[in-house]
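Contributing new records

If you add data, match the layout below exactly. Sequence lines come first and carry their own label; structure lines follow with theirs. Keep one chain per record. Anything else will be rejected by the validation script.
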Amino acid sequence: MKKKVTIYDVAEAADVSLATVSRVINGSNVVKPATRERVLETIKRLDFKPNQIARGLATSKTTTIAVVFPQSLFGHVKDMIGGIGDTGRTLDFNIIMYTTDELGLGNPIEEVIEKVIKSRADGVVLFNNNCIDKEIDLIKKYRIPAVVVGYKISDEDICSVYVDAKSIAYDMTKQFIEQGKKDICFVRATQNLVDLNDFAKGIEEAFKDSGVTLPEDYIVDVSNHYEESYPQLKEYFDTHKHDVVLTGYDKEAVAVVNAAIDHGINVPEDMQVVGMMDTSYATICRPPLTTIHVPVYDMGAIAIRLLTKILNHEEIDEAEVPMHYTFIKRDTTK
């Protein structure tokens, strides 16, 4: 299948900004003749078909905010939608949501950013995922004001709301080590709202500071989808059993609990399990899941408020906002 040529491709090939391509398409007279010719030649060579995206680079505000997240993270962000929507309505901003599909053809990230521009959104909310660095590079390139949820970053017209995954992992690991539980495993999914690299660093630092050797291969990578992670973990438990399993999200923790029990591993007597986020997965789990409560509604609300401050040129006290978290003890830990 032939890849669809986008305005992003034209800008890259002509070595100009997306705004310059838009001005050429609109017939603006502020573009230098040589640059105009180069852009027009590129449009012809790439067989680019201009559409309303040329009008997407609006010069006036539309009071619209775009929210972009991978489909595989929907379970993580759905509880934030209330905070996003309520705050948007309170501040008289419209919210448009876009999803990226990492399994799709072409280059979905660029295509979604084009849709954001086409929608004439004033700013965008992004969510931490395994392509977040690329997404941030794109919004910087096109100078789109943004707030990133779940990933600590600040820059010109960029703020963030995040959970200190490193501190969470460090504190939990240190506590378990002090209880004599030194065989600790981290089940890591491919996509997560929490920065799982920081989570792993927290585990590693806790072992180092405790003077205890970190188990080899302590990270087990699994799918985001339960129907795939459960059989992966069931096979894993054929040859493994740990004192403690930490996870980056409740859904993975439920898969751990179910796979362990189906292998005759008693939870929490033989193995303790901790989830993350305190979602509905934690309460429907049997036994009920010990987890880290994160105020996801508030994260969504704060993200929108931060973005409107950027858009309205208001003073921002803290560009990187850490969210408080709480350890919720239930029945998968002793």
